[in-house]
Specification:
By secondary structure, chain A is an alpha+beta fold. Chain A is built from 16 helices and 13 strands. In chain A, a hairpin with a 4-residue loop joins strand 5 and strand 6. In chain B, 45% of the residues lie in helices and 18% in strands. In chain B, a hairpin with a 2-residue loop joins strand 4 and strand 5. Classes of the chains: A alpha+beta, B alpha+beta.
């Protein structure tokens, strides 16, 4: 029941060893990806739906995420609370998450209990009750979630404004949790239509990683999901981002203590690069991925070396690129000015770093460092069955072959210093840039003053 | 059809668990006096090392709050004559991951490396440089202090962080646990290089170190690793035990004005120590009350029934000395009183009545049925073994875990909750817009 902020889970390096994936498609269109990992008697089962905030349109933003919440509110066969009670009684961990490009549900269980997950997930794939009474309470819960994640976090609030400014027509301008006004106006009918439209076996992928036998999982999947009726699923509306023709700036003045800066450059994603006639070479997204590592992939990366140390202009600074997004997205740099330094100084220093990448190729030493980190991360990721399933589900849901995960290390290894310079030159220019700044407003009373009352507090009714 | 499937499903609930291999923990001391805990795991070519010292914020001197965290964060900012960039680069060129953390009880560093000797050895050499030969350069000290001051300032814009600081302070009074781990703006500003250096000399010593090694290496190599890491440390001595935590003699409510949309509410009091004899009764008992996510009482009452909050929970967080029992909820400011009332009512009733047999049964099934999930990765195992080592828990802690959970009774939970928690002596913290009436909102 959580939101994945855009790209939050996509760490700078997100490789996974995907060899040995068994891929099936049931007659009703359900995709099944299975990967064996016999280190522990545990299995993770994830159901991924091809729907998320980027499928939404004005007026119903947040509907994918509210529906994710409602998926825990029961079916005719397993009424409200039963799903979670049964999973809990079986020692399971469960939750769900909504992103721009997907909505996913998961359980981690002792391996022999996988059928329980399949039975319950198959049931709620087509048979959700969607009671109005439950919806009215749950949408309040989501509004509380929005208050906690966004309204009361000045940085997140500014990031939301930054994305809504950077993207003019692309659905990535919409916050995953939705605008508050849309949540307030949302009705049960919106959810019914959304559920009907996207929750079907031919719009879903089941990903299983763990101590399992693929043949048995396949027959189990047929037994539980095989009879589900497919739906006519139409492609989401295609409204690409219009070309940006000049820098955009947005300022958020809000009660806060610390300034924050966001710089967003429009960049293509791997999916675009793989399409014919896109004007983007296949290596470009990987070069952007390495570029993010050059800037902020550790304590010896350029931001730490030059901005946090060196110039001492940043208290923190990060770079992030959305390699596996479904639609063309962005390269994001964000940071907090060091004490006594301004957001303008930080912006100027970041611009110098970008200019340096455009002017001279990165050193062999830096590039080798990034590649060594990618190679070792590829091994470290295997320590988590959940993460391995995440990568497969994510690729499948945005319409990329899962085999790309296999190629990741090789593709990164092929990136050259000159390619990094070229993508820096091609994509990091002001005409495609959005700069957002959080300007902290002081509060009426500068310091919180605790007010204490002794006793009596235990008896309030 | 659906009825048949239902029956099948119920039958599955009682499938026997396949036995999860509980890690075999080996334990010894290095010549320098560091305690070592080791688990060999051969499946992945990874080695994880954590070195923890009794050097958390509870060891901060009076007026020098933040020193433990500052010292911990400065270890890799220059060591053995290498500057910060060079130290980080040495880890990163090897694909190794270094991290450092300072909590209330411990200051620790962690290293994850590939197990190939040509990667692991230089990474360990760098780790021992960081632990034993930090240079604490003046410019790094000045910079890290400023970064810490920004972090302290940033906390003030978060109602959750403000609430947590107020809560710890009220629950712990004069005890070192009362101070924020980051220190305060005043205390951090005054910290000097000599303070950092003295803190390191006193606490980052072998006799105060617990080394945890997990991964793809045998006992002989693990011994080499432990020696290699600790060779640069002074032998030193373990510090005197931390003072006991005093109980609360009265209820107290703190209200802090904050320009937030939500009011953050924390409720609690000192709870239990690691290794406490009541631990399993309280852990299993709290699982029912507020520790089991979507199926806990608090979640059902506050979120499910009333839609009052996104997040609500309770937990005992054991520390070396009594860690806090904390119950929390965040809600829109105008319904804060209602949320607090429901939270208090539920806690009060639970202390009086305990769980039902059915609830206890469900909690036990969840905890024991999910036991394999707790130890299904190298990093999970590292976490448990490091905790067992640092707090000196029995080496068979994981072996006996399920039996101890199974043994808990409703009566034990009720009795332990009544003895350990007093609903009339709890701290309540509310952070959000105060209803002063005379200011426009």
């Amino acid at each position: 029941m959580k939101i994945i902020l855009k790209g939050l889970l996509l760490l700078i390096f997100c490789p996974v060893y995907a060899a040995g994936v068994h891929e099936y498609e049931l007659d009703n269109g359900l995709k099944l990806l299975i990967k064996e990992d016999h280190r522990a008697p545990v299995v993770v089962s994830q159901v991924w739906y091809k729907v998320g905030a980027s499928y939404e349109h004005d007026g119903i933003t947040g509907v994918s995420h509210v529906l994710e919440h409602m998926m825990f509110k029961g079916t005719e066969e397993y009424p409200d609370g039963e799903f979670s009670r049964i999973i809990a009684e079986n020692g399971g961990r469960e939750n769900a998450f909504t992103g721009d490009d997907y909505t996913a549900y998961f359980q981690t269980l002792e391996a022999s209990r996988l059928p329980i997950s399949f039975r319950l997930e198959a049931d709620r794939m087509r048979n959700l009750t969607l009671s109005e009474e439950e919806f009215k309470k749950e949408v309040q819960v989501v509004m509380e979630e929005r208050r906690m994640r966004t309204e009361d976090k000045p940085g997140s609030y500014t990031y939301e404004a930054a994305m809504a400014t950077a993207f003019q027509t692309s659905p990535y301008r919409q916050p995953i949790i939705g605008w508050m006004a849309d949540l307030e106006a949302m009705e049960i009918g919106d959810l019914e239509r959304w559920y009907q439209r996207w929750y079907a076996p031919n719009n879903a992928a089941v990903v299983v990683v763990g101590d399992v036998d693929p043949d048995r999982v396949l027959s189990m999947a047929k037994e539980h999901f095989g009879d589900l009726r497919p739906e006519t699923v139409e492609a989401p509306p295609h409204r690409p981002e219009v070309e940006q023709q000049g820098i955009k700036r947005v300022t958020v003045k809000r009660s806060a203590e610390v300034a924050e800066l966001f710089m967003i450059w429009k960049t293509p994603v791997l999916k675009t690069a793989l399409a014919d006639g896109s004007g983007t070479e296949e290596w470009e997204p990987y070069a952007l991925e390495v570029l993010a590592g050059i800037l902020s992939g550790g304590g010896s990366a350029r931001f730490a070396r030059e901005l946090i140390r060196g110039r001492e202009v940043a208290a923190s600074a990060n770079a992030r690129y959305g390699l596996y997004d479904r639609l063309d997205s962005a390269f994001l740099v964000n940071g907090t000015p060091a004490q006594g330094r301004s957001a303008a100084e930080l912006e100027a220093a970041i611009r110098e770093q970008i200019a340096a990448l455009q002017e001279s190729p990165v050193t062999r030493e830096e590039l080798d460092r990034v590649k060594a980190q990618v190679i070792s991360s590829d091994v470290y990721e295997k320590d988590s069955v959940f993460y391995q399933a995440m990568v497969l589900g994510r690729l499948e849901t945005v319409g990329l072959p899962w085999r790309l995960a296999d190629e990741y290390v090789e593709r990164i290894d092929a990136v050259t210093p000159e390619q990094i310079r070229q993508v820096a030159e091609k994509y990091f220019n002001d005409d495609g840039l959005t700069v957002a700044e959080l300007v902290p407003l002081p509060r009426d009373n500068a310091l919180p003053r605790p007010q204490s009352t002794q006793g009596g507090a235990g008896h309030v009714h | 059809m659906s009825i048949n499937k239902r029956v099948l499903l119920l039958a599955l609930l009682f499938l026997p668990l396949t036995a999860a291999a509980v890690p075999d923990i080996q334990h010894w001391q290095t010549a320098a006096g560091a305690r070592v805990y080791f688990v060999q795991l051969k499946e992945l070519p990874i080695v994880d090392v954590q070195v923890a010292f009794d050097a958390g914020s509870a060891r901060d001197p009076n007026g020098g709050e933040g020193l433990a965290m500052l010292t911990n964060s400065l270890l890799d900012e220059g060591a053995g004559g290498m500057d910060a960039n060079a130290v980080s680069f040495e880890f990163e060129r090897l694909g190794a991951q270094y991290s450092a953390d300072a909590g209330y009880d411990s200051g620790s560093v962690s290293l994850r490396s590939l197990s190939d000797a040509d990667k692991l050895r230089p990474a360990l050499d760098n780790l021992s440089r960081v632990l034993g030969e930090p240079d604490f350069p003046e410019e790094a000290l000045a910079r890290q202090k400023k970064r810490l001051l920004v972090a302290i300032q940033r906390k003030q814009q978060s109602p959750g962080a403000v609430a947590d600081d107020a809560f710890q302070s009220a629950v712990y009074g004069d005890h070192p646990y009362a101070s924020p781990k980051e220190g305060t703006a005043d205390s951090v500003r005054d910290l000097q290089r000599s303070d950092v250096s003295a803190f390191h000399d006193r606490y980052y010593v072998a006799a105060n170190a617990v080394v945890t090694i997990v991964g793809d290496l045998d006992r002989r190599r693990a011994e080499e690793v432990a020696d290699r890491i600790t060779q640069a440390l002074d032998t030193g001595a373990a510090p005197a035990p931390l003072p006991e935590v005093a109980g609360l003699d009265a209820a107290k409510t703190l209200e802090v004005d904050h320009p937030s949309a939500q009011t953050h509410i924390l409720l609690g009091q000192p709870g239990i120590e690691r290794g406490d004899t009541d631990y399993f009764s309280l852990y299993v008992g709290n699982h029912v009350l507020g520790g089991s996510g979507l199926v806990s009482r608090l979640f059902k009452e506050i979120r499910g029934e009333r839609g009052l909050a996104y997040s609500t929970y309770s937990y005992f967080f054991p520390r070396r000395r009594s860690g806090p029992f904390t119950a929390a909820v965040q809600t829109r400011a105008d319904q804060a009183d209602e949320a607090l009332r429901v939270l208090r009512d539920n806690i009060r009733r639970y202390i009086q009545e305990g769980p039902s047999e059915k609830e206890l049964m469900a909690a036990k099934k969840n905890i024991t049925g999910g036991f394999p999930l707790r130890i299904d990765s190298n990093s999970d195992i590292l976490g448990y073994v490091a905790m067992i080592g640092f707090y000196g828990l029995p080496l068979d802690y994981l072996d006996t875990f399920k039996d101890r959970v199974e043994a808990v009774t409703v009566e034990q939970i009720r009795e332990a909750f009544r003895r350990r928690l007093d609903p009339d002596h709890m701290i309540t913290v509310k952070v959000g817009p105060l209803n002063t009436g005379d200011t426009e909102k």
